[in-house]
Amino acid sequence: MLPFALLALAPLTSASSSCDTHPPKPPPLNFHIDLAPTLSTSALVVTPDNPQFSYYTHQNLKSKSPQYSVVVVVATEADVSAAVTFANKHDIPFTAKVSGHGTWAGLGDIKGGMNIWLRNLSSVVVAEDRGHVVVGGGAMVDEVVGRLWEGGKQTATALGQCIGITGSGIGGGLGPLMGVYGLGLDQFVGFRVVLANGTVVSADVETNPDLFWALRGAGHNFGIITEVKLRIYDRKGSSDWSYRQLSFSGDKVEAVFDEINNKRRASPPPPLSEILYQLIDVLQAIIDLRLFSNAFSPSQLEAYAASFLALSPLKNTTTLALDYPGLIAEMGYATAPEGCTPPAGSFGSVFGAAVERHVPAAMRKMYNLFNEVIKTIPELWASYIFVEGYGTEAMRQVPERSTAWAHRVPHGMCWTDGSGINVVLAYKADQMNATLEGIVQKRGEEIRAAKLEGQDRQRSYVNYAVKQESLESMYGYEAWRLEKLRGLKKELDPKNRFGFFAPIF
Ligand SMILES: *[C@@H]1O[C@H](CO)[C@@H](O)[C@H](O)[C@H]1NC(C)=O
Ligand SMILES: *[C@@H]1O[C@H](CO)[C@@H](O)[C@H](O)[C@H]1NC(C)=O
Ligand SMILES: *[C@@H]1O[C@H](CO)[C@@H](O)[C@H](O)[C@H]1NC(C)=O
Ligand SMILES: *[C@@H]1O[C@H](CO)[C@@H](O)[C@H](O)[C@H]1NC(C)=O
Question: 124-235 — its CATH code?
């Protein structure tokens, strides 16, 4: 039936479209002529013929890279607004970029898009009250942390240093000072934002309070942040971080996670972070446990670590007293910001989820599957599992409904959502092809399913989500949360222009 209907219609369609009353096709856009004059003189329009184009468009998640036809290196807030207005007028999909660490596979849906390159909005200005800092939307974590450190200050940010402070913050900002000051997003007290229609607004507790609420947890859906004001705090001393590293062979998986559960059950929860890596050592994953705290002295950390030492580590370090930059360097995060931008050798797909507590049997299953994958698929040699556990005290004291971050869960155990487990299956960029990508997706999901055994529900950290995650797992299972977010989205971004990163619809 259908083919005939189409045939019958075809002559009619072609007859009407052959009519020469149609307006002539507009000439193709020339971004240098049509777009550049709408921007400030310091802004730069970069097109694919420019050798620098790949520098600006590099994305860590190589296989899901967006495809851009133009980069706008903005110099002012007004440039961001002009770029958005231009993109809307010409129906060009757009997104904003700082470091290119976004993992969401939907970024790959951008075709012929505009990349609004925020990196140069990187000012860091400590406010007169010395209790806040005003930061440009393109600043990296290490620029803010470094500037604050020099001035005797600190704030809660993600551990990763070469990621954007706003991009990582609006999705949560889990990090090592979360138990002391709250999440990265709990530090945000005011934003300047370019909305989907190019209008610039402020958002804080008094002005646009609903937008202010939504930006802290679901920000990627609502605007491009050109500036944010954060709370800052006096740092304690100069070498006030205690750090210790221990590594264990794979047969200790249950014992190590059992012990972490035991420790975390204390009330109040210990003011300490642990990061575990499972790294590949001669095709055998080892467990690399790093304990660090801003509240424990070295001798307190010694005492804390005693029960882990009793599990016979392969290796252990002495307890170090470090300043924060020293801690970052010791842990291998002190990459210069630009070191994160040029194409790196390998790329990975992340299979993340937060857990309410570790289930040792599930961790065993995950470990075994991971080990099998890296043994049998040599292309995935650079893969790793990354378990983050941070202090949760201050994070839990922030009222649960006060931000769009849905994972405060005050009734949970101390472990709750202080922890994310991320399996990163990594490969050399030049080995990537559709077959390998298919294998990575299939095996990655198997490993993710294994680690979620024994959990009530999946909770996903939006910053590490890749597109398989449900909206509820990212933005909350309480119905009112998604209702409120959808209502705001309808009002502020009805055409879903900000739809390429964990979109609400
Ligand atoms: C962006 O900032 C870098 C580093 O400060 C500078 O070299 C470059 O000229 C800036 N680009 C533009 C277009 O302003
Ligand atoms: C910790 O490391 C030190 C120095 O390598 C070593 O002497 C000690 O035996 C280790 N402790 C345990 C419990 O393995
Ligand atoms: C794709 O990658 C897989 C795994 O590395 C490899 O075995 C296969 O030969 C590659 N296929 C093509 C067509 O390159
Ligand atoms: C842009 O959207 C906002 C929020 O919906 C609205 O208040 C504003 O009037 C819009 N601006 C224009 C120029 O339409």
Answer: 3.30.465.10
Q: What dotted CATH number matches 35-117?
A: 3.30.43.10
DSSP code string of 79-103:
HHHHHHHHHHHTT--EEEESSS---
Give the confidence band of 353 by pLDDT, cuts at 50, 70, 90.
confident
SS3 content of the chain, % helix, strand, coil (to 5): 40, 20, 40
Instruction: Quote the tokens at residue 58.
Output: 């590099």
490 lines ligand 4 (CB under 6 A): no
- Ligand with minimal distance to 319 CA: 2
Distance 321 CA to ligand 2 centre (A): 18
Q: Domain limits of the chain?
A: 35-117, 124-235, 241-475
Q: Are strands 273-280 and 285-293 parallel, antiparallel or unpaired?
A: antiparallel
Q: Give one DSSP letter per residue of 216-239, joined into a string.
A: HHHGGGT-EEEEEEEE-EE---SS
d(CA 50, CA 55): 10
Alpha-carbon distance 142 to 164, whole Å?
9
Q: Are 79 and 193 in contact (CB under 8 A)?
A: no
Alpha-carbon radius of gyration of the chain: 24
- How far is 8 from 4, CA to CA, in rounded Å? 6
Q: Which two tokens stand for residue 500?
A: 């390429």
The pair of three-digit structure tokens given for residue 3, joined into one six-digit string: 């083919």
Question: 396 alpha carbon to ligand 1 midpoint, in Å?
Answer: 40
- Ligand 1 within 6 A of CB of 42: yes
pLDDT, tens digit (0-9, with 9 covering 90-100), for 53-91: 998 998 776 567 799 999 999 999 999 999 999 999 999
Nearest CA to ligand 4 atom 8: 199
Q: Among all ligands shown, which has an atom nearest to the Cα of 198?
A: 4
Nearest to 194 by CA among 90, 74, 321, 342: 74
Provide the strand spans (E) within 285-360. 285-293, 315-316, 320-322, 346-354
Model confidence over 139-189: pLDDT tens digits? Answer: 999 999 999 999 999 999 988 888 899 999 999 998 889 888 999 999 999
Q: Give residues with Cβ within 8 angstroms of 95, minimum separation 6.
A: 66, 107, 110, 113, 114, 115, 116, 498, 500, 501
Spatial contact of 157 and 175, defined as CB atoms under 8 Å apart: yes
Domain at 241-475: CATH code: 3.40.462.20
Neighbour count for residue 381 (Cβ, 10 Å): 14
pTM: 0.89
